[in-house]
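Lab notebook, bench 4. Still working through the backlog of constructs that have no structural model yet. Next entry is a single chain of 131 residues. Request: give me the structure tokens for it.
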Amino acid sequence: METLVHGSRATAEFKVEVLSFLAGKAADRVKVETYVPRVKVRRLLAHLLHSEPALEIDKVVVRGSSGCSDFVGSVDVHTTSGRHAFDFVWDCRWRAEHEGYVDVFGFPDQMRAAMEFDWQCFQRWERRSDN
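Model written out:
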């Protein structure tokens, strides 16, 4: 994750706050409006930094709901040049099905998918055009 953070075009202040957030500390530039496990927000941040490397991110506002195998919502990304919004679905069950992973009971092995692919379980990542 540190490689993604330091390699991004995000502002220096955002980079510091992301690393603070990942360490379990408060971070004003990483705002999560609903309860979501920190690990799922970390995955979202990793995907954002990887998928949108040109954005000079200064702050994010995350809205979403988290289930056992998924995290669905949106993220507003405030940059030095304006705001961008993305809708997303992170779903390790979908990734397990996509990879053909099954557990001993014949169900999609979502734990294996989450462990092996981590933040790369995004089924949907779409820029919203209502900006």
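Notes after review: The longest helix spans residues 38-51. The first strand starts at residue 30 and ends at 32. Flag for follow-up if needed.
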